[in-house]
Amino acid sequence: MIKLIAADMDGTLIGKNHDIPKENIEAIKAAQKNGIKFAIATGRAYSDVEPFIHKYDLQCDCVVLNGAEYRDINGDIVEHTYIEKKRAIEILEVMKCTDLAIEIYTDDGFYTTNTKEETLAGMVKRWKH
Asked: Which domain of life is it from (predicted)?
């Protein structure tokens, strides 16, 4: 018996038009009506997920920030695993020695070593796929 359906956002729950298709919403509501819990699991921050939850009146838990936060149906943080600031600084120091772009998602926003143009190009690339 299925007890839980968990879905990623990009390319799974959200379609090419950058919205949740009607069919997905209907399937979620039907599953919930039959006692199956639904959850969203995504790398996105909760602030990026919340508008969809409100728009479609989804009653679901969310695992966000690539698993760093677990939020209940009210959006309250139930569990979280954050990297301590000191450890994050150590990691960043190592990463700065590489030719990699650094992107950090936090409960307080998004930070990157990219220029605005590089960040925008990366966002456009992700949306096209």
From this structure: Bacteria
